[in-house]
């Protein structure tokens, strides 16, 4: 938790550490309330605009009770001081626009909880994920800077590119399409031109996943061509 002494004041502000009538100053609770309300509105708007599902929690850092900002005759205004999405560690600019303006930057933390794909057990590299290997669990996605998957369909049937542990949050970097054609396989080469399709025998010179381009030898002409994998034992070229 960022400690309260990290609150940054604008150049026009001052920190008064003397005792005085509390009515002359803005209470820390008022700064916290302005920050809390602004962040709740901003996060709601962000989730609606980006069509992001999930629940959120806003926590505003404590403010040093010795901070004595003059009482503001106007309603306090708030705006984001942190760039990017209002998720994770953020800073809110709280400003008084009165006759003696001042600005305080209040740190806060916004947690966004979403259901993400996670492993159910330790698995080795090259494992093809089945329905029993992946589960959706709620996690705070703010710290998941490498990304995450929001449905089981994004993981089941794919191959692991690295080992995993139990409760591993899966990302695109962990997964790749499994090969449906292996090196040396006999394949059918389909050459299409408009509505016409010609089929020829071929040999795969490398393994390939769905939609991947691989080298194939045409066994009629013995020419080596590049073709797109369209299914097990099948590749396609455009004429």
List the helices and strands and how they pair.
Blueprint: E1 8-9, E2 25-26, H1 28-49, E3 55-60, E4 69-70, E5 77-80, E6 88-96, E7 102-119, E8 134-140, E9 159-160, E10 175-176, E11 179-181, E12 186-193, E13 196-204, E14 208-209, E15 213-218, E16 224-231, E17 234-238
Parallel strand pairs: 12-17
Antiparallel strand pairs: 1-7, 2-4, 3-7, 5-6, 6-7, 7-8, 9-10, 11-14, 12-13, 13-15, 15-16, 16-17
Write up what this structure looks like.
- The protein is elongated and about 95 Å long.
- By secondary structure, the chain is mainly β.
- The chain has one helix spanning 28-49, and strands spanning 8-9, 25-26, 55-60, 69-70, 77-80, 88-96, 102-119, 134-140, 159-160, 175-176, 179-181, 186-193, 196-204, 208-209, 213-218, 224-231, 234-238.
- The N and C termini lie far apart (62 Å).
- Strand 5 (77-80) and strand 6 form a beta hairpin.
- Strands 1, 3, 5, 6, 7 and 8 form a 6-stranded antiparallel β-sheet that branches. A 5-stranded mixed barrel has the order 12-13-15-16-17. A two-stranded antiparallel sheet has the order 2-4.
- It has 3 domains: 4-112, Thiol Ester Dehydrase, Chain A (Roll); 113-176, Antifreeze-like/N-acetylneuraminic acid synthase C-terminal domain (Type Iii Antifreeze Protein Isoform Hplc 12, Alpha-Beta Complex), CATH 3.90.1210; 179-238, SH3 type barrels.
